[in-house]
Amino acid sequence: MPATAATTATVRSAAAQSGAGGRSPRPGVTLGSDFLQLDIADAPPGGRTAWLADRLRSAIADGRLPVGTRLPASRVLAEELRVTRGVVTEAYRRLSESGQIAGRGRGGTVVVAAPARPAPPTAPSASDRPASPSSPAAGQRAFRPRTPRTPDAFFTASPHRDGLVDALRGLPCRIDLSPGVPDLAAFPRTAWLRAERAVLAAATPADFGYGSPQGAPALRRAVVGWLARNRGIRADPDEVVVVAGVAQALGLLAQLLRADGIDRVAVEDPGSLGARQQLEYGGHTTVPVPVDAGGLDVDALRACGARAVLMTPAHQFPTGVVLDGERRRELLRWAAGGGVVIEDDYDAEHRYDRPPVPALRSLLPDGVCYAGSVSKLLAPALRVGWLLVPPHLRDALVTAKRYADLGNGVLTQLVLARLMDSGELERHLRHVRRRHRKRRDVMLRAVEAHLPGARVHGAAAGLHLMVTFADGPGSRVPDTALAAAALDRGVKAHPLSWHRLTPGPPGLVLGYAAGAAHEIEEGIALIGETLATLPTAT
Amino acid sequence: MPATAATTATVRSAAAQSGAGGRSPRPGVTLGSDFLQLDIADAPPGGRTAWLADRLRSAIADGRLPVGTRLPASRVLAEELRVTRGVVTEAYRRLSESGQIAGRGRGGTVVVAAPARPAPPTAPSASDRPASPSSPAAGQRAFRPRTPRTPDAFFTASPHRDGLVDALRGLPCRIDLSPGVPDLAAFPRTAWLRAERAVLAAATPADFGYGSPQGAPALRRAVVGWLARNRGIRADPDEVVVVAGVAQALGLLAQLLRADGIDRVAVEDPGSLGARQQLEYGGHTTVPVPVDAGGLDVDALRACGARAVLMTPAHQFPTGVVLDGERRRELLRWAAGGGVVIEDDYDAEHRYDRPPVPALRSLLPDGVCYAGSVSKLLAPALRVGWLLVPPHLRDALVTAKRYADLGNGVLTQLVLARLMDSGELERHLRHVRRRHRKRRDVMLRAVEAHLPGARVHGAAAGLHLMVTFADGPGSRVPDTALAAAALDRGVKAHPLSWHRLTPGPPGLVLGYAAGAAHEIEEGIALIGETLATLPTAT
Q1: Phi and psi angles of residue A535, each rounded to the nearest 5 degrees, phi first
Q2: What does the pLDDT read at residue A96?
Q3: What pTM was estimated for this model as a whole?
Q4: Which end of chain A is more exposed for a tag (fewer CB within 10 A), N or C?
Q5: Interface mutation target, options B411, B441, B527, chain A, most CBs of A under 10 Å
Q6: Please, which residues 456-515 of chain A have a Cβ atom closer than 8 Å to chain B?
Q7: Torsion B282-B285-B290-B295 (CA) sign
Q8: Residue A141 carries which DSSP code?
Q9: Which of A514, A537, A400 is nearest to A140 (CA)?
């Protein structure tokens, strides 16, 4: 390899070079300092203290060491720079005197003030989630009614705008009735930490390495058990691919379908805006197929000519309809004829009236791509889901997942596998289902009391209600205007029209699972007040 | 919304319906059972015990309840099915008598044997990582020398085969000298768990919800501090996008570049096979540009006409060369003229001789896409990295990340932010650097002792050595044959030719960070023995 000759060496000379050319490293001590990439060789002889103080001063001035940064212990930095400890303590003393750093006892030495040049701004961007405690400018408390950020423009923007749902999530509010989020206050922190401790205790070094892109075998086995017990699906762990939630599942499927020559996917109308956007970003045209009392209209599906359909058969989003027996049979006939069904089983486990219907996948493994996740079972923040595809697509799916991210994070998968195997997740589900049900009842009563003319759909299951306004004041204003005015009063909800591809009566999609009873009560009352004051000019 | 009229109801009737039509639910008790989707309404009157036993029996027989599954407590199942507890205990007793389930004291009632129809096979697939303790058929102990899975065919397969590196990772071995993995045994389990406990204690419910697709603000701030202290980069948290490792960063950049009309990307030759495949999967043609003693040949880059280049300037993979000052200046001129530099800063923090050179990004934020991760700092299993792009690409990047997976898992991000902010990660880096350095020295000595004619490249930094065979027995066999024969003896390493686009002397890429000293010693000795016995027919 002549090209690299100048950097190569025989083994002997490479070994000799392995110290820092000419310097005599002390054994066991790291050479050089990563800290600010300081290199003592740059310091003038006899001027090391001044040099170090100067370097620190510029790093503080130009923002590389922002206020709050803890400096290395003087012993550590001295060792790394190979100077006496006195050089470092003296440099620290000078900066301390000039008020830029300060000793904090066991908290170490900390940057306390930056001179002249201001630190870069740290205001959150629009894509930050303001509800996060670590985001300075936001949080529920920060919401001011009649904020100048007029939500009107936001809601009346094209519903096809990228990341609309996500952007709404980012707006501050006082009461959040967005659909799709479970009771997050119930997250089983203690059980999670206990499982994590067990996972860390049992993990081999290899568990911290690159995992299987298909997912940790332990989690795939646990998912198989979960699907068998809860969704009537019999599967082999090798059929399961662990993904970062249903969103990633749809993105990967969009790729696979396109590789299979499919670029039009039928979607339910009304149906999830987010899911539709996911497919469209993946290069597909989405074709609306109406949903009625029996679920997706399979005749219309057949007529539209799309070779694939994305649907939510166990609990249609947003209507809450369950695909009925006759339609299931028709759909399976369509799939047996070569159609691809993408089954988004997003909240099938949340039923209050009867056991959930078995998944379509349980009836026709070869024609159904099945996607589920822990987002509604446990927490969206975990970003873990699973995808099962027909056998002929499996290898392509694993390849797509590999190139997407080399596989999900392993520790989270192993913790989740423990929670599933131990029955902890089912226990949690039973617990939150009781809480969700009470909150649903609160919302039903509040809608009855405060939203005249509202019709409620899909109350028997899930984490949200859909209401439509067939008459009354709500029927005479666009639902985007209602949602905008409600957000102006601090209450967040989805306008139903966001989730429609063809026009229909106005309405709202109202999540009840995440909020406390009094918030639900107050939120609906505020929407009712809003409704009463809106000019009814459609 | 007339289409759904049959499933709608006025608020009053919806509220009345919210129980299970006609049944009178007991308050506070969940209706219906998720467990096997049992519905007591299916049971014949007076035959509930037999019905339940039968349902359980079939679920065990058809694999929905595999051996080892814990059944719900009889009290819980009885409550859910709304039968007396006696019905459940009697059904359990019958299955227990027939030997299918057994009481395990506080361990509950467990499935112990499946009759007749066998459970589905659970052998790991090729994409499983056999080193995982939870993968039954594998692990280091399971390696048998001269296994019938001949590695020859594997190594001589086209190096452009999808997932080749990944597939090699999946093959069993006794000593793993693959490059790119840090000392995983040193993973700071205690610090991690402590930080996780603090995160769970401090988290608000919103932290368990959908996070910002751009990444948790706390981690973005921590990354900014890290980059300032360790890589000379001054950035604003809003410039940082948290990604699932450098692999995802490359996948997302591949999308952005294509949207910008770029579909040819220059890559270093030799250079990382995995990174090249990532770009190719993303629809790009990769154009080889030679690497010499000064790093990437910028004249050749200019001549090849590609508008973007992927490179590893701080520590070139696999040669270990640092891009020299003159080349850096040339490259920045090229970038200032509109070229896009993708800087894969994969292991810049691991230098043994001097502070790492500052990142290219620190010199030209507007022309450099900068990708880093914790894979080499801490553990690949975490799947966390960061990507900074020029300002005009930032919004498109956030959108691409949103559609990829809605953002990284939040808990892992918050734990990592704590480890970075507290100085724990820097402490860990200092610790492993000492260990890595010793292992490197062991490998250098072993190469000198056992691999005659080997030239060592890139020993001053990183987690691997590159050796080439300019003469001696190693120069007379293809390196794929050597790697295959070595794996046959239980030692895994990368043939250098995998990472070449144009032919060059044979060689190996040998990781030293992950293994213990005696394994490195023995692994290199075994490669030496292999070399001595190979027929030298090239």
Answers
A1: -65, 130
A2: 82
A3: 0.79
A4: C
A5: B411
A6: 456-460, 468, 470, 504-505, 507, 514
A7: negative
A8: G
A9: A514
